[in-house]
Amino acid sequence: MRRLHKLAAATGVAAAVICATVQPAQAYTPAVKPQATTIAVGPTTTIFIGGDGKVYQTGLDVQDPAGNVSRTTPTPLPGLPSGVRAQSIAAAYRFVLVVGSDGKAYGAGVNAQGQLTDTSADHSQGWKSTLTPLAGLPSGVSAKAVAAGYAFSLVLGSDGKVYGTGRNIYGELTTSMPSELNYKLAPLAGLPSGVRATTIAADGYTTVVLGSDGHVYGAGDSAHGSLTGTGDAKKLTVFGGLPGSLAVKTVAVSGANVVLLGSDGHVWVTGSNEWGQLGVGATDTKDHPLARKIPGIDQAVAIDAGYGNVLAVDKYGITYATGDNTGGALGELGNPVTVADAVRVAPGQPSKAPFVEVATGDSDTLVRDADGVVLGVGYNGQGQLTGTGDRSALTAFAGQRISAYKSPAVSGTAKVGSTLTAKNGSWSVKPTAYAYQWYRGSTAVSGATSATYKLTSADKGRKIKVRVKGTRTSFTSGTAYSPATGTVG
Fold first, then answer.
1. Which of 140, 159, 397, 403 pairs with 339 at a CA distance of 20 to 30 A?
2. Angle at alpha carbon of residue 105, lines to 253 and 80, rounded to 5°
3. In contact, 339 and 322? CB cutoff 8 Å
4. In the chain, which residues fall in CATH 2.130.10.30?
5. Which architecture does CATH list for 404-481?
6. Which residues make Cβ contacts (< 8 Å) with residue 327, sequence separation at least 6?
7. What is the pLDDT of residues 427-451, one digit of tens each?
């Protein structure tokens, strides 16, 4: 076994996350604003950006340095300034990264190796319990995306450079930075002159960058030949052995593989096939430095890589997986999964919208559908999939709030003797039940709790409105008020 196998067993290696919102390829128009706009997975913590622009966490709380607090429902992570919305996220072993709408990169959690930067003279800025700006981006350069490895962080700058901080033991931050610990964002070395970085990914001790020239570059640990046989690279080095016609759209990386999404919808993999990641129907212990195309996935729109598995979402909104299924990260697909298979959804789930994004870790997987509902499958020991107990099929996160994005309304004539009818409005997740309360001005009308209300003489000269409450099992209920009617005549 290579060193990363041992690391994964000891600590859990964070899965790579492509931090960009992926739009569905098929024709689908969400009826409401989303619960979530992007997702990320760490070994013990999962995070997503809500439709309100806040970062929500579940699992082991990165605010708690003792590691004793688990969040079993989505909980906002504080620290972003008022008015700043999260735009990109990454999660690793007990720390998370966020790009704000103000162009700054923020981090929270463990900072023992400088992965969240430290400007103190003695490098004593340890745990950061709230989202705190990272130091080092040059003046005028804004953050566009983030990625996280085992103990290092990457930021994609608006100038097309990749900046890094933290541990650099295998060259994952390249020769431009000290070989051990770093405490300030600094540019990585190796991209050719004139080539801009467009996408970044990281995991374990490996950095992967997609350049504006269409080439893929890697630095750090080349476990199982995942950097296409170059060996450990001390600077960003172009991948060799890729098909000359392969136009790469995005990249993902794990401790055992690099995964490439081609513009033709095919998924290409380098590195290990120990758990069937290549999807060829068998496993082996050889290194695979030349990219292999996974059979059976030819219309992919999104990808991710966990330690020992590969996942892809196709344009029809189906999530496919190959590789290791330890902890049930891929659901009831068997272990290993040597041929691409669809990850199943638990019966009775709330949304029939297609999946548009996937993020996977050592032992659990998240998907996001086109309505912004987050679902998870696999190991749930820290509550990272919400609630308690492991999940054998994709199941909606408990505690996602049902919110009305189109207010309820009242129909009917505002005249004594007429009947008014409540219109439910539009909700982030369709409720399975509604409850009503009618109001005369700001005072609740006793007993008026049905979807209709007959106006009485007590209502004359007053304005009427209705409160609608939407509920659904495992979701937090939401309430909303209709506009008031005109004065009742």
1. 397
2. 125
3. yes
4. 3-396
5. Sandwich (2.60)
6. 362, 363, 364, 378, 379, 390
7. 877 788 999 999 999 999 999 999 9
